[in-house]
Amino acid sequence: MGQIHGPNLGSPACLVTSAGELFVSLASGGTTLNIDSTDSTLVTVNETFKQLHLGNHYVSHNVINSTDPGSFCFVVETPSGLNAPNVHMNFEVTSTGILEIKEFENVTSSGGTPSIPINSNRQSANTSQCSVAYNPDITSSGLLLGEWAFGVDNNKVKTGGDTSRLNEIILSPGSKYAWCMETTSAEDIIINADGFWYEH
User: Fold this and answer.
1) CATH number at residue 166
2) Domain that holds residue 22
3) Does 42 fall in a domain?
């Protein structure tokens, strides 16, 4: 067992146990951290994986088979109120043809096909506080936040293109956000639109 001393944390501040665990002693108590037995590195997870483990991570999938040029949207409405969690959103869209994607904030919409978000932790009974609808009637698109485009006609490969928001966007509470996709492809195409987020 090793000891690490530090200021204002008591003496000793940390203990490395024979089981390869690091016990950190704080003024209010202590906590045990895992250390890899092979290279003695501290084992951690990022915030997304942490929220997934806690049952706060959700996904919404949609597959669109387009036989004609047209537009398709999915809208996410965030929870409101003093205790509403922050919604940390990412998305990914792939298509076998030409596609333009626009991201809007504060849209006005009604109707559509509701979609129940799926909890990524299948051992958790938590449910999302967001509501999701596909192809609602949008009467105001609000503020344009981003725009992406890719693809070609007569594509001979499996994927004509894809785009994603690599860095999460924290959505405002009590607001509606839309991801709208428009294709001008003359041939049949398949679109996969995925939203994935955690609420914290």
Assistant:
1) 2.60.120
2) 2-34
3) no
> Which amino acid is it at 105?
E
The total number of residues shown for the chain amounts to 200
Across the chain, the runs of DSSP E, i.e. the strands, are 2-4, 14-16, 21-26, 29-34, 57-66, 70-77, 87-95, 99-105, 108-110, 113-115, 118-119, 131-134, 137-140, 143-150, 161-164, 169-171, 176-183, 189-199
In 3D space, the residue among 109, 123, 178 whose CA is nearest the CA of residue 146 turns out to be: 178
The backbone torsions φ and ψ at residue 139, rounded to the nearest 5 degrees and listed phi first, read -100, -20
Token pair 């665990």 is found at 21
Total of domains in the chain: 2
What is the model's pTM?
A: 0.77
Report the candidate in 140, 161, 171 with the shortest Cα–Cα distance to residue 58: 171
127 plus 192 within the same structural domain: yes
Match 């001008």 to its residue by tokens.
184
63: left (phi over 0), alpha (psi -120 to 50) or beta: beta
Per residue in 69-112, pLDDT (tens digit) is 678 899 999 999 989 999 999 998 888 888 899 999 999 999 99
Residues 67 and 20 in one domain: no
